[in-house]
Specification:
The chain is of the alpha/beta class. It is built from 7 helices and 8 strands. It has an 8-stranded mixed sheet with strand order 3-2-4-1-5-6-7-8, sandwiched between helices. α2 crosses α7 and α3 crosses α4.
C-alpha cells in the first residue's frame, strides 16, 4: 500500500513539474514575442524621423545651441527629444524622451571636455553617439548643425566613417563659423589667405591638408549649408575665423553634394553671434525642413 502511495505521489509530482515547465515555456515565448513587437514598433517609429544633432564649439556648452533649438521648436515644428552628454572618456549618456510620433526630433550634444580640440579624439566621441542612436533608436540618417570647432569634430568623423554602410548616413549638414583652414591668432592672420580661381585656398594648414587627403571618405549626395560671418571691420572675418578659412570647405567637398554658402555681414556676423541670430535661425530652418 505504501509502495503504491509513493508511486502515485511520484507520478503526481512529475505531472506538476511538467505543467509548471510548460507554463514557463509559454510565458517565455509570450515575452519574446512582445519584445519583438515592441522593438519592431520602435524601429518603425524612428525609421522616417531624421534627427538633427546640434553641436557647440570650443569652450562652449548648453547655451551655445539652445537659442537655435528654441527657434526651431517655435517656428519649424521641431522638438528637442534628447540631450547627449559625452564624457572625456567618450561615454555617451542620453537624457530625455523620444516620443514615437515626433517628426522633427532635435538632439543637443554637450561635451564635458569642451576644450579638447584633438579631432582624432573628438571624432570617436561622435562615432560613439551615432552608434548609440543607431542601437537605441534605429536611426538610418541624421542632420548636423555645428558651430565653430563642433564642425571639425563632425568633419573628422565623416572623413573616417562617412561611407561606412553599417552606420547611419549624413543627410544635411549646417556649418556655422567653421575654422576649416585656420583660426585667427593660432595658424592664420587676417587677410593673409585667399582663394584661387578654382576655389582652392592659396595657403593650407596641416589640418586642412589632412582633410584634403581624406576627402574621398566623405559621403556623397549630402546637402551642405556653410554660414560664415564677416564683421566688415577690415579683417574679413568674424573675429576668430576668416571668410577664407570657412569658404575653404567648398573646395574640400567639391562634387560631394549640393553646396550653399551664406555670408552674414556686420556686427551680427561676429563669431559667437552667429548662433544668436534670428536670420541665421530662419535660414537653417528653411534649409533643413522646407519642402
Amino acid at each position: 500500500m505504501k509502495k503504491k502511495w509513493l508511486i502515485g505521489l511520484s507520478i503526481l509530482g512529475l505531472l506538476l513539474i511538467t505543467i509548471v515547465l510548460f507554463h514557463a515555456f509559454e510565458q517565455k515565448n509570450s515575452h519574446t514575442a512582445t519584445d519583438e513587437v515592441s522593438s519592431a514598433n520602435t524601429e518603425k517609429a524612428h525609421f522616417k524621423a531624421t534627427p538633427t544633432i546640434y553641436l557647440h564649439g570650443y569652450g562652449a556648452g548648453v547655451h551655445s545651441t539652445a537659442g537655435m533649438i528654441a527657434y526651431a521648436e517655435r517656428h519649424n515644428g521641431a522638438h528637442k527629444v534628447l540631450t547627449a552628454k559625452i564624457s572625456p572618456a567618450g561615454k555617451v549618456e542620453l537624457q530625455g524622451n523620444w516620443p514615437r510620433k515626433t517628426k522633427r526630433p532635435l538632439i543637443q550634444v554637450i561635451l564635458q571636455d569642451n576644450k579638447n580640440s584633438n579631432y582624432y579624439t573628438t571624432r570617436e566621441w561622435f562615432y560613439n553617439l551615432i552608434l548609440c542612436l543607431k542601437q537605441k533608436y534605429h536611426i538610418k540618417q541624421y542632420n548636423t548643425v555645428a558651430h565653430s570647432m563642433g564642425n571639425i569634430m563632425t568633419l573628422a568623423y565623416q572623413l573616417k566613417y562617412g561611407k561606412d554602410s553599417n552606420l547611419p548616413r549624413l543627410k544635411k549638414q549646417v556649418n556655422l563659423g567653421a575654422p576649416f583652414n585656420g583660426i585667427i591668432g593660432i595658424d592664420e592672420e587676417p587677410n593673409h589667405n585667399y582663394l584661387l580661381k578654382n576655389g582652392r585656398p592659396k595657403y593650407m594648414t596641416q589640418s586642412y591638408k589632412y582633410f584634403l587627403m581624406h576627402r574621398h571618405s566623405f559621403p556623397n549626395n549630402v546637402s551642405i549649408l556653410n554660414i560664415f560671418g564677416n564683421k566688415e571691420d577690415g579683417t574679413n572675418s568674424d573675429d576668430d575665423v576668416s571668410c577664407v578659412s570657412a569658404q575653404s570647405l567648398r573646395y574640400l567637398l567639391r562634387g560631394k553634394g549640393k553646396y550653399h554658402e551664406i555670408e552674414i555681414k556686420g556686427a551680427n556676423g561676429q563669431h559667437s553671434k552667429l548662433h544668436e541670430n534670428y536670420k541665421v535661425d530662419r535660414i537653417i530652418g528653411q534649409f533643413l525642413w522646407s519642402k
